[in-house]
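Ticket #197: bound-state structure for inosinic acid.
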Amino acid sequence: MKTGLAANNAKKLRELEAILTPLGWELIPQGQLGVEEAEEPHVTFVENALAKARHAARATGLPALADDSGLCVDALGGAPGVQSARYAQTTASEPKSDARNNEKLLAALGESCHRDAHFVSVIVFVRHADDPQPLIAEGEWHGEIITEHRGDGGFGYDPLFYLAEFDKTAAELDAQSKNAVSHRAQALQALVARLRR
Ligand code: IMP
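RESOLUTION: The complex was predicted; output attached.
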């Protein structure tokens, strides 16, 4: 199925493609279609994902798929949450930086021993911009924030996100393992199951 993909983060895009292409989806990143990034003004993942999907569908005339995701840390009241990509930004014009986001997260947690966290991915599929019944699927991936970076795979907060069941951070997992269990993989599996029904 030819679908507009509302994503600009190249590594996130690769994860989505790795899961959906084998299922017969033809994903066309919105950047390739000359579509600008949507605003993400909302305080919940689901509202932002819906806004991105609608924006992509309206601009491309294709069905559209969008993911809004982020890291929620219990001891920080769910922060950085929907601000994950921009956590360390002080002005809107400053470029996004995973390294500075990670530094800020470590500083915010300090020596705290309450380091439970989870990634959230909300994926929205709209058949067209005014689809009254968008398909919405959600995935969560639970772990804890360690005090030093480990691993160089993945992206974003992966080097700080420790998974006891693997004794590895998400950045130490190979791409195939991450794509089998991550929040994004879980959300996509739920979405595909809904589409099949
Ligand atoms: P979005 O592009 O607005 O959805 O922002 C997603 C942000 O959440 C990314 O820039 C990362 O900071 C963080 N994030 C989401 N998924 C992951 C992941 O799988 N690993 C690490 N960080 C992630």
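RESOLUTION NOTES: The two ends are 16 Å apart (CA to CA).
TICKET STATUS: resolved
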